[in-house]
Write a structure and sequence with these properties.
The chain has about 180 residues and is mainly α. The chain has helices spanning about 1-5, 15-40, 40-60, 70-85, 105-120, 120-135, 140-145, 150-170. Helix 7 crosses helix 8.
Length: about 180
């Protein structure tokens, strides 16, 4: 659906409410996933996404190419998430993760990987989520997070190492080969 909107979009044309709504709906999972990976709190993540959608809507006519909408709105989500972190630096959240009693093996494996990703430091989590879950290139991640491409590469490498160690530890295996 987003491609149809982008194909019919002409530069300097205003984005109407329905077009904006369709684009946001298309990318809502990516927006929430990024915010949650940065904030580690579902309520703050929802606040960040809501605030980002509002700011994007107000500024919707500044975007020149709708093919860049996802990167543009994720940049706004990222900025809003970091803004919430700055505001709430002294708050500590105590969330309990409730694991469903009956889950399939595939879902369990996926859950273990996601759980391991959530244990990473924030600077690694955001990059893993953008790279693996949202399929962004290193260049796009660099632009979204406002860090050099070389930093993205280093953090991605270190995050992979940390994930490997975490997943091997969870499985009771060692890293010897």
């Amino acid at each position: 659906m987003a491609n149809n909107i982008a194909d019919n979009f002409k530069p300097n044309e205003t984005i109407n409410k329905n077009q904006f709504s369709n684009l946001v709906e298309t990318h809502q999972l990516s927006m929430y996933r990024l915010a949650k990976s940065i904030l580690l709190n579902e309520y703050d993540a929802e606040d960040a996404v809501g605030s980002a959608i509002y700011k994007a809507y107000v500024s919707r006519n500044t975007i020149k190419d709708l093919n860049c909408f996802k990167a543009w709105i994720l940049k706004i989500v990222s900025n809003e998430s970091y803004s919430i972190i700055r505001k709430n630096k002294k708050l500590i959240y105590m969330e309990q993760v409730i694991e469903p009693a009956q889950i399939s093996k595939d879902y369990e494996s996926s859950y273990e990987v996601w759980d391991s990703v959530q244990k990473l430091e924030e600077k690694y989590r955001a990059i893993i989520v953008l790279f693996y879950y949202d399929d962004f290139s290193i260049k796009n991640i660099s632009e979204i997070l406002d860090i050099p491409q070389s930093t993205v590469k280093v953090r991605l490498f270190r995050a992979r190492q940390k994930l490997k160690i975490e997943l091997l530890t969870q499985g009771g295996l060692t890293n010897e080969q």
